[in-house]
Structure formats: C-alpha cells, structure tokens
Here is the input.
Amino acid sequence: MANVKSQSQELLTPEFLVKLDQLALVSRKIFAGKLRGERISKRKGESVEFADHRSYVMGDDLRFLDWNIYARLEKLFIKLFLEEEDLHVSILIDVSKSMDWGDPGKALYARKIAAAMAYIGLVNFDRVSLFTYADGLQDEIAGVRGRRMMFKVIEFLDRAVCEGKSNLTLACKQFSIRHPQQGIVLVLSDFFEKSGYEQGLKYMLGRKYDLYALQILSPEEIEPRLTGDLRLMDVEDDDVAEVTISRALINRYKRNLDAYCNQFKEYCNRRGISYLFTGTDISFDQIILSYFRQRGLIK
Here is the structure.
C-alpha cells in the first residue's frame, strides 16, 4: 500500500486512502462478469459459500452430494452454493476544453473523484475501467483489478489533457458498443453540451447500466463576478459574443443555469439515472464520503 500512497499523493492523500480502504462500491444489481469474481450473487453456482440443498437427480455432479445428510436420512441431496461474480465499474471523465476552467479547476476535481472511486473498486477486486472523452472516447484503461493496479490508474489520469470540444453523444455511443457488460457507470462532466445530453445518455440507458451522472461546475460558473463590457469566447469552438455585464444580465444567467441544471436533474430522475451536482469549492472527499453514500453507490 505504501507505493500506491506515494504515487497518488497529488490526487489522494495517504490519510484519505486509509478512509477509502474501509469502503466498497455497491450496485443496485449484481452483474455477471466473464470471469468468476469476488462478489456474491443470488445465482446458484459453484463458489465456496453454501446456500441450500436440493434432492439429487440423475446426472448431477456426485462431488456435491452431502454424505452427512445421507448418513442420517439415507437420502441423496446436492449442496447448492452462491455463485461469485465480477462487478464492473466504469468511470467516464470529460476532458474537453471547458473542463480546464475554474479555481479549483473542474478537471483536477474530476480526476480526484475518479482516482478515489477507482481505488475503492480496486481494493475490493472489482473490474475497474477508466475512459477520457472529448469529441468521442480519447483514452482508456480497461478491466484492471487489485490494489497493485492503482499505479496504472494514476498514470492514466496524469496523462489526461483537456482539449477539443465535447461530444457526449459520440462518447456514449462508442462506450456502449465496446463495453456491453452491465455494471456501474459514473460520468464526470460539466454536461455543457451544445448538442444536448439526451441522445448520449439514451445509448447508456439502452445497455441498462447502473448509471450515475455527476455534474461539476466551478464557483465562477455558479456565481459569476464579471462586470463591464466584455468580449466572451467559447473555449471549445471559439464562438464569440460581445456583452455588457449588468446585474440584470447576471441574474438572467443564473436563472438560465438553474433551469438547465434542474432540467438535467429531472431528465435523469425520470429515467433511473442517479444525478448529483457539485461545485469544485465543495471538498471532493465530501462527495465520496457523504453524497455517494447517500445515493447508495458506496457503503
């Protein structure tokens, strides 16, 4: 664990890692992986955890006969066990240019949350995958497992660079095609999408993932402190607008932002997506230890 701590101090302090060691990710459903894993499902299989008995029928595996019951009752019964399954955990991180903004910055905040969630999954032997996206998926580290793989997660997050425009629709389409296995999917983004977020999330919903959307905004976006005559430029597509900042305009902006975020929240709630909102001035460990716990994502 010492090596993991030394490699990840920029994103996660050693003290916080100790707290994460006590946590586990929880899906509203337990999903099957391709390989037998560490999670216990409700399906009957061949793990080491005993579940029940049933009467022997011709063709059953004789290795699972309960000879103790036979000695007492002179009847043949088969032992049933709970099957172990993998829990797949996927984290999508928006690295479009708009995430390179704010104090504290949205991109660093998203990387910290991704690192914490990945660590929780790895120490519990979940199958953890991370993806960066802007105009589609950019980079990925897929299916890592075990605490010793945390250094690869840190390397992956360290090389993430914010550039280009966001295309959530393309990223979600690519992800859902390449990764059909069900599991937990967490999307970290500001969700400022000129083409909208609906179509992208529909691709995710079609796969029946256990889907979480964390909308991350900077304090400057939530409470702008601009004044005077300004020439504003969109950092992703260079669109320009010349405006005079007044109190009335600021109030209108805040109403529009609240309406957009509330509409997004309602969209998610109606479709079973767990929606959370945060500003980067909120301690990120509060998101992990409080918000995600309240939503049932971790325990």
The chain is about 35% helix and 25% strand. The chain has a mean pLDDT of 83. The longest strand covers residues 77-85. Residues 247-270 form the longest helix (24 residues).
